[in-house]
Amino acid sequence: MNKKSLNTLEFYKIKDILKGYCKTKAGKDIVGNLEPYENVYEVKKHLKETKEALELITRKGNPPFEGVYDVREAVSRASKGSILLPIQLLRIAGILKSARKFKEYIDRKDDEENFEIIEDICYGLISIKPLEDRIFMCIVSENEISDNASSTLYNIRRSLKEKTSSIKDKVNSLMRTYSSYLQEIIYTIRGERYVLPVKSEHKSMVPGLVHDQSATGATLFIEPMGLVNLNNEIKELMLKEKAEIERILYELSSRVYDNVSAIKNNCDIMWELDFIFAKAKFASSLNGVCPLINEHGIIDIIEARHPLIDATKVVPTTVYLGKDFKSLIITGPNTGGKTVTLKTVGLLHAMAMSGLMIPAKENSTVGFFKEIFADIGDEQSIEQNLSTFSSHMTNIVNIIDKADEESLILFDELGAGTDPTEGAALAIAILENLKKRGSKIIATTHYSELKGYALRTKSVENASVEFDVETLKPTYRLLIGIPGKSNAFEISKRLGLPSYVIEEAKKSISSDSLKFEDLIQNLQEKSIKAANDARISEVLKSEAEEIKDKYEKKLSSLNNIKEKAMAEAKREARSIIREAKDEADKIIKSIRELEIKGYNSKTRQEIEQYRKKLKDKLEGLEETISFSQNDNGKMLKYVNEGDEVFVPSLNQKVIVISKPDSKGEVQVQAGIMKINLNIKDLRQAKHTKEDKRIKKREAKLNFKKVDISLDLRGMDAEESIYALDKYLDEAYMAKLEEVTIIHGKGTGVLRKAVNERLKNHPQVKNYRLGEYGEGGTGVTIVRIK
């Protein structure tokens, strides 16, 4: 999009405001390069990300950007193997911490909320907590390394404190000894060595090394010989401290170098998020909405507000274009708001196509245009010897050369600056040429000829800015469909011009012109009434929709209660049936016992018939209640190994690990347990939205399927630890929450090695030995972070 039009529309001011909401210079640089996107897919995507960010702020509060700095220079130095300064390391740790916190901020969900674009962006964030913790442990502030950064540094500093305490005691003793030769009874430090201020005439009385003298020469700063060795020891310790600090900084810089790709990735994502949430905060300050994007050049912006005008003073205006007409001619008095309307339409389109929300009402529509041309304002140039008319015409020539059906063109005072007759004719010709190309046009003018052109030309519509004759002030409201009325006679009369002068002036105008002006006034009055009626209708419609939504929610709640009640009733029914079946079996058992004591074979046959009839009836009733398709899913006729199915009796999903045998028995795995079930007891598994999203992500990242258990039996300690580390990494990437490590009981050596490794493993939240039914002490249950 041409930058001249963006500057004319003052898009750069919007970017300056947006920069104020960015936390980092990197985010501000992204804003600095922001321009309207070149395709409609990009526009919709970036608008959606802004909307998601605004919803996140509304629901969860401000995102965790604390400690985020622009560390591009530090990361660049680290990538070349340079040693970083403490402040640079601290800021890198800060952005790593913020990235980790941001991932937690996004993953914390309420209900079924979904932030698809921002979730996809944050999915790329990589947690490097060991490095983050190490830097924070080693560096206390921008210029201070912690004593706990290493045991060597701790010992050096402890020795340094002891030596410093000793030398202070020694220097105090020497001051008392040489007090009569000192200029002042104090000690000072020169070149990191403790010295005494000795009067120059007594320098021979204090044996030692002269390090400095006062400006007057009256005082010499002498290091007594008794302090030389202690000063040397302190100096040596300070050099060791410096060397150890450099070693620690080198170690931390090396670890940053080893993870530089992940750090760069996190930084890029965090700066992009900084930019996205800056857009959201800006939208919140504007009370902005996410507009609909139309690819057919249709514009319908409801109650648009210019974002650079004081929100307490700006007057909303509604503009529509592109359906019934392609060109809009706006007329009306000066200072009536015509130019502001042009700039509002142009600037809101530039904002929307740059992924920014616009200050308007919900359901506002902006057109997707590849070019916005704006010829607005007085651009006369003394240097180029261009008058106002020449300057405008230069812009128009450029517009005519480049405009097409994907262009929005904004003309301010088209044809002004020259003879009115010629200017009006030229303006009509320009509008007609651009209209034939399919361009969408909004133009302001004072020429009456253009009102007539709009009235008689198809796809061209008049509009005007409203003017209150009573107050002699514009209302800044746009009236589409009505050409502007000059109101010259009414204004003159209100200002005190004698009536006879006004009547004389009316005589010089044809009666047809006067009737036309009166017709315009009547149309304006009717339009105002229609607009008021429309507003009232809109309010009533909105209230009706709110009532509808309220009762739909109530109906949904009642349906949920009904479903829960039915499910509870079915559970109770199943319990009753089981009890009845058990009772029936007891009765039949008693009958058999009676038969053994004296019943004949005929009685036995009848008893068996009754028993079978009772059993079939009970089982049929149980199947009807327990395994309703609507309740627990569709019954399965066939299953294959690896299928995921649902078991209503266990109320969980399981994996089929064997094909059905001749009796229909299959083996399934539920957690670490293997169970034999009949195929009649299995139902088709229902997949939730969360299951689908996880599967989609896993497919996207091509993650392989990870078992929920790892068998280490038969391995030695070293081999088992390697397998354990690899498995825990895969389990973490596969988002498993709990896994089982099978190490067996044996001598306990393998279990001890596994538990020792789990204590400090970065992916492990906690662990415990198995309980009864889980494998006992032969397994360890591990919870993954």
Q: Helical amount among residues, as a percent range? A: 40-55%
Low-confidence stretches: 380-385, 626-631, 698-703
What fraction of the residues are assigned to beta strands by DSSP? 15-25%
Q: Please outline the major beta sheet.
A: 6 strands, mixed
The outline comes out as: flat
At the fold tier of CATH, the topology name of the largest domain is Rossmann fold
Which class of secondary structure composition applies to the elements?
alpha/beta
Number of helices: 23
Number of beta strands? 25
* Structural domain count: 6
Distance between the termini: 48 Å
Q: Give average pLDDT, whole number.
A: 81
Family: Belongs to the DNA mismatch repair MutS family. MutS2 subfamily.
GO molecular function, one term: endonuclease activity
Enzyme class: hydrolase
Coiled coil: 541-631
